[in-house]
Amino acid sequence: MGKRLCVLLGLLIATVAGAQQVQLKGLFGDSALLEIDGRQRILSSGESSPEGVELLEATTGHARVRVAGRERKLTLDAPVASRYVQADKAEVRLMADPRGHYSTEAWVNGLRVPMLVDTGATSIAFNYPTARRLGLNLEGAEEIAVSTANGMTRAYLVNLSSVTIGGIKLHNVKATVHTGDFPRIVLLGNTFLARVDMKQQDGVLILRARN
Fold this sequence. Notes:
2 domains; mainly beta; Clan_AA_Asp_peptidase_C; Retropepsin-like_bacterial; EC 3.4.23.-; Cathepsin D, subunit A, domain 1; SH3 type barrels; signal; 4-stranded antiparallel sheet; Peptidase_aspartic_dom_sf; elongated
């Protein structure tokens, strides 16, 4: 009886370990931001989390991890889950690159868009080719003049139905579409940032949804 109980307990433990939920939230050189059973962990290649998940490799397109003795390849190709929650508020943590910049992946119109956090930008700012790829409708959009590092230029004011970053999803977000190729990467400006709580801690930028 005792032996059978030990076997059953062993199977239960193995089942629980196999059910561990691991999702890839960000890639930063040889490091990756993982969500493990709802907890955020930033690991460098070769490091293991307190939950026992080991990051084997991080590239620009995927991460390889070892979970419960099995290797898994994780990518950012699927929308991030709304389970990205800590202390009952959705939270995203971004690691600075070597130049001190913060980048993230956002979802607009169901498509993944790399963005660069820019607290000096008034709004989320798209270049024209990216706006076309996302299917943003500029017909009837208000035309405005905006100041850039290259001087004054024209842009169109648009309204995004939703912008999702990690578990943070905001609706009716204002954005601008520039008429040329600037900015080369979409700028995550204050029409989004002003609607979340934001702080820096040990080189990590923390964005947290408000109630």
